[in-house]
Amino acid sequence: NAGVTQTPKFQVLKTGQSMTLQCAQDMNHNSMYWYRQDPGMGLRLIYYSASEGTTDKGEVPNGYNVSRLNKREFSLRLESAAPSQTSVYFCASSELAQPIQKSTDTQYFGPGTRLTVL
Amino acid sequence: AQKITQTQPGMFVQEKEAVTLDCTYDTSDPSYGLFWYKQPSSGEMIFLIYQGSYDQQNATEGRYSLNFQKARKSANLVISASQLGDSAMYFCAMTTYGNNRLAFGKGNQVVVIP
Q1: Which residue among B33, B91, B104 places its CB closest to the CB of A105?
Q2: Under 8 Å CB-to-CB from A94, ≥6 apart: which residues?
Q3: Distance (Å) from the alpha carbon of B32 to chain A's nearest alpha carbon
Q4: Beta strand A113-117 with A10-13: parallel, antiparallel or unpaired?
C-alpha cells in the first residue's frame, strides 16, 4: 500500500498561472481533505470531500477549486495563482464514520507539495 | 468552533529523558477526538496517537502517551525515553462529532540532543 500519494512534490508558478495538484489514496477511505501549511502555522483546511460525489469548503477555500474524481482521487486546482498561495499543500484521507473512533476518524497524510508562486 | 492551543516555545531535550508537550482545546461538543501528529524536517505528517472524549483510559502507543484531563480540556503528549529521531514539530489536533474537519494547533518544536 502506498497510502496517500501527491503529485507533484515541488512546483514553481508565476502569478496568474493555473495548476492542479493531484492526490490519490489506496486505503479505500471515504473522505479526503486538502490542507495548506504556512510557516509558523498549523495546517488549515481548504476543502474536503466527505464521500464520493460531495465536496465542501473548509477554513480557507478562496482561490481554490476541488474535484472528487472518484473514491480514490481528489484534486485541488488553482485557477489564477497568487503569491499568497505560496505554501505547502497536504492531502489527507480518512475512513470517517460516526461515532468518532480512532480507526475511522484518523486522517492519514500524503508527503505534501511545496508550491511557490512568484 | 473548535480551537487548539499550543504555546510552548521550542524545547531542547536530553536523549533518553521524557518530554511533555502541552495542548489545550476548546469545544462545546461532548463528543470529540484528539490527535497528535509528528512532522520531522522531511515534512511528512505522521499520526502518533488518538484519544476519544469518552475513552476512560489515557491513550498509549509505544513510547507515546496522552495525559488527558477532560475537565481542564488538556491533552498533553508525553514522549518517554527520547531518541534523536524524535526531533520534530509536534501538532495537536481535534475533530468533533458530525464535523469532518481537523483543527490543528500551531505546533511544538522539539530538539533532542545527545
Answers
A1: B33
A2: A29, A30, A31, A33, A104, A105, A106, A107, A108
A3: 7
A4: parallel
CA proximity to A92, closest of A68, A111, A66: A111
What does the alpha-carbon distance between residue B24 and residue B84 come to, in Å, rounded to a whole number? 26
CB of B81 closer than 8 Å to CB of B19: no
CB contact under 8 A, A42 and B33: no
Residues in B closer than 8 angstroms to A43, CB to CB, are 45, 91, 93, 102, 104
Q: How far apart are CA B100 and CA A45, in angstroms?
A: 10
User: Rounded to whole angstroms, what are the CA distances from A71 to A46, B9, B23?
Assistant: 19, 40, 34
Supply the pLDDT for residue A74: 97
The per-residue pLDDT for range A44-87, each reduced to its tens digit, is 999 999 888 889 999 999 999 999 989 999 999 999 999 999 99
Query: Can you tell me the distance from the alpha carbon of B8 to that of B11, in angstroms, rounded to the nearest whole number?
Result: 8
